[in-house]
Automatic annotation (TrEMBL):
<dbReference type="InterPro" id="IPR036291">
    <property type="entry name" value="NAD(P)-bd_dom_sf"/>
</dbReference>
<protein>
    <recommendedName>
        <fullName>4-hydroxy-tetrahydrodipicolinate reductase</fullName>
        <ecNumber>1.17.1.8</ecNumber>
    </recommendedName>
</protein>
<feature type="binding site">
    <location>
        <position position="134"/>
    </location>
    <ligand>
        <name>(S)-2,3,4,5-tetrahydrodipicolinate</name>
    </ligand>
</feature>
<feature type="binding site">
    <location>
        <begin position="75"/>
        <end position="77"/>
    </location>
    <ligand>
        <name>NAD(+)</name>
    </ligand>
</feature>
<keyword id="KW-0457">Lysine biosynthesis</keyword>
<feature type="binding site">
    <location>
        <begin position="143"/>
        <end position="144"/>
    </location>
    <ligand>
        <name>(S)-2,3,4,5-tetrahydrodipicolinate</name>
    </ligand>
</feature>
<feature type="active site" description="Proton donor/acceptor">
    <location>
        <position position="133"/>
    </location>
</feature>
<feature type="domain" description="Dihydrodipicolinate reductase N-terminal">
    <location>
        <begin position="4"/>
        <end position="106"/>
    </location>
</feature>
<dbReference type="Pfam" id="PF05173">
    <property type="entry name" value="DapB_C"/>
</dbReference>
<dbReference type="InterPro" id="IPR000846">
    <property type="entry name" value="DapB_N"/>
</dbReference>
<keyword id="KW-0560">Oxidoreductase</keyword>
<feature type="binding site">
    <location>
        <position position="37"/>
    </location>
    <ligand>
        <name>NADP(+)</name>
    </ligand>
</feature>
<dbReference type="Pfam" id="PF01113">
    <property type="entry name" value="DapB_N"/>
</dbReference>
<dbReference type="InterPro" id="IPR022664">
    <property type="entry name" value="DapB_N_CS"/>
</dbReference>
<keyword id="KW-0028">Amino-acid biosynthesis</keyword>
<keyword id="KW-0520">NAD</keyword>
<dbReference type="InterPro" id="IPR022663">
    <property type="entry name" value="DapB_C"/>
</dbReference>
């Protein structure tokens, strides 16, 4: 059966990419393309919505779709764990609410790198994240870095917090789930993340580099196709890949 997709943020790069993928897919069709002047009512009748707007607009879009019973995939950056918790309460408080799938990064390679780091995390007490994005990215740390730090924290379990010496010094990075995160915003970079794990006499580094927006295509299609199969609030493309990591569905 063909799924009708409403795209919010249709004029942006990710929105245009999603629309192209929808047009090329046999099992998807474009229901509505929303920009900043569109009424959210244009989403009504869609089987799934796709939000790639900006942090100031995203919450209203998500609440509208979920409240209308439309599953929504959220690719907008800037969603903290506290804001996701608010949406979780919103969904739980509305009968027949649509599922909400938060995807910090649609690159399957990025998701796997973060997952591998989480699996290694219990064996190293020194762990830090360095992430770099283009100069125009407005939020830091990135949603991918936040998600990676959360997975590492969950993956450590009884091992407890990592060693983060001199965390009071600003140059030591921002602590996210107890993990120091360092953000670079500069020209010449699209996206890259390194998770560095240090042990006795050795380091282990997981690096993922995004070289082209085409790396997001498989993840976008996966999320759109699977969003109608889940319920409640799901965080991370890893949950849709069934990698078995903890804490992905709420």
């Amino acid at each position: 059966m063909t799924k009708r997709v409403a795209v919010a943020g249709a004029t942006g790069k990710m929105g245009q990419l999603a629309i192209r993928l929808i047009d090329e897919a046999d099992d998807l069709e474009l229901h509505a393309a929303l920009d900043s002047r569109s009424s959210l009512d244009e989403m009504l009748g869609a089987d799934v919505a796709f939000d790639v707007t900006h942090p100031g607009a995203s919450a209203a879009i998500v609440e509208f779709a979920a409240g209308a019973g439309i599953p929504i995939v959220v690719g907008t950056s800037g969603w903290s764990s506290d804001r996701i918790a608010e949406i979780t309460q919103f969904v739980r408080g509305h009968d027949d609410a649509g599922a909400v799938v938060f995807v910090p990064n649609f690159s399957i390679g990025s998701v796997l790198a973060s997952s591998f780091a989480a699996l290694a995390a219990p064996y190293f007490d020194s762990i830090e994240i360095v992430e770099a994005h283009h100069a125009g990215k407005v939020d830091s740390p990135s949603g991918t870095a936040v998600r990676t730090a959360e997975l590492i924290g969950e993956g450590r379990g009884v091992a407890g917090p990592v060693a983060a010496p001199h965390a009071d010094q600003r140059a030591r990075g921002q602590l996210v789930s107890g993990i120091p995160v360092h953000s670079l915003r500069m020209s010449g970079v699209l996206a890259e993340q390194r998770v560095i794990l240090g042990g006795d006499g050795e380091t282990l580094t997981f690096t993922h580099s995004t070289l082209s927006p085409s790396s997001y295509e498989a993840g976008i299609l996966l999320a759109l196709r699977r969003a109608t199969e889940v319920s409640g609030v799901t965080v991370g493309l890893d949950a849709l890949l069934d990698l078995g990591l903890p804490g992905t569905i709420r």
